[in-house]
Fold:
Amino acid sequence: MTSSTASAPAKVILTGEHAVVYNEPALVMAIDKRAYVFAETTRGGNVELESEGRNEVVRYPLEPTTPSSKTKQETSNLSPYLPIARQIARSAEYSGGFKVRIRSAIPAAAGLGSSAAIAVAMTAALARCLDMKLKREEVSKIALESEKVVHGQPSGIDNMISTWGGLIVYRRNEGFLPLRTQARLQIVVGLTGIERSTGEQVAKVAETVRHHGKVSQLLLHCIGHLTIEAVEAIRERKMETLGELLSLNHWLVNALGVSHPLLDRLVYASIGSGALGAKLTGAGGGGCIVALVNDKSSQCVMKAIESVGCTALSAQLSRTGVRIED
Ligand code: PMV
Structure:
């Protein structure tokens, strides 16, 4: 029996969520909160998946079953990770089983890319168990299969940033460009505690696009342009400008119908207590906001978020993407 542990980072989208689904650029940053996946090979043809945080254990056959014989377990929160185990086993022509244990410091269903970080770390850990040498591109691509189960039509931004880490400009049909910068990106994340489904929020935007095609296209393109300006602001280390762009992005994406009264309240509270800018991050509809802060404002912004009854997390850029831990 062989075993391995891998980890991968969470992310915040600084600008461009939703627009990225429509091939506009988005700016995304890996943060110093990680998911850890321990994997080992076992006898028999089953995959056992355990989530420590959710106190849940499920077991599936490694060979796909027919849809009619799907068990209740196959619709659990952990079932989206099953295609990863199946694909790795298939590629390595492996007929044994796996035991997988997930430990994540990333709040789930909050817009911080928790499911992608788990998928990426799991892919790397399982591949390592079978002595497969996967390139990063391959890790990201396999992890995307589980994102498809969770989101339907993901843009690929979450698995990409969890795999590579750092600060990246991403465009769906063109790929990504790492941004090397000495700018200090200090952020505070404000968690509403409201879980929401990314797929539902993406569908909401699609509905707006269907009903208000021209206006929606302009809004999406405007968000894409804002990302280009945000990249310039980072290159020139103009943090105030970056903050203003973040806030502008919040109101633009809000117009597409994916904010929430509590997200708006957190944005106002953050800006009112000294943040350079703030916006919802991820799919919206709940989840969290990201506020751009500096040393002077960080504590005040955290307090302001807590005074609204939400949880505040301070986070930094993580340059490390997926990593084998042992
Ligand atoms: O999974 P989330 O909440 O971080 O949202 C991902 C960003 C979206 O643009 C809303 C969807 C996507 O696939 O890019």
